[in-house]
Amino acid sequence: MHAEYFITEFLVRILNVKCIIIGEDFRFGYKAHGDINLLKFKGQKLGFDVIIVTTCKIYHKRISSTKIRQALKRNDLQYAEKMLGHTYCISGKIIHGYAIGRTIGIPTINISLKNRKLAVNGVYAVELNGINKHVVYGVANIGIKPTFFGIQQNVEVHLLNTK
Length: 163
Prior knowledge:
CATH topology of the largest domain: Elongation Factor Tu (Ef-tu), domain 3
Keywords: ATP-binding, FAD, Flavoprotein, FMN, Nucleotide-binding, Nucleotidyltransferase, Transferase
Strand content: 25-35%
Order of helices and strands: HEHEEEHHEHEEEE
Structural class: alpha+beta
Pfam families: FAD_syn, Flavokinase
Strand order of the largest sheet: 5-6-9-8-7
Number of strands: 9
GO molecular function: ATP binding; FMN adenylyltransferase activity; riboflavin kinase activity
Helix content: 25-40%
CATH class of the largest domain: Mainly Beta
Protein name: Riboflavin kinase domain-containing protein
GO biological process, one term: riboflavin biosynthetic process
Shape: elongated
Distance between the termini: 54 Å
């Protein structure tokens, strides 16, 4: 999609954008022809503001969503969280499992990944929000359940101090 068309049709007509925040090296559109100057010019003509933020760096390296995903893929959660500036978190809906944990006295919940693949397989201490009024603590296993004929990645959380 050509840069000017993206601005007029998508940003202005469809989204009715009033302000856009971009990085100082932002490029967009067909063959990356759109740049900051085009956005500023069109913003003045079409009535939206353009705010440019400086590039964030860690260890003299530019932070990007690609680098965060790569760190997660390497299971380098510490570096990913440093780039994010906060604890890595996921969200999803609770789904019904086979209730095997309940039958052996280990209450668990399963969280739907909705076809997302998390790169951070492993066992983690977690906080769950939104289950009740208080934070619930647990131990999450992110990975395949080979014992139960698993073929896709799951998030299963053992709820601590609950019945």
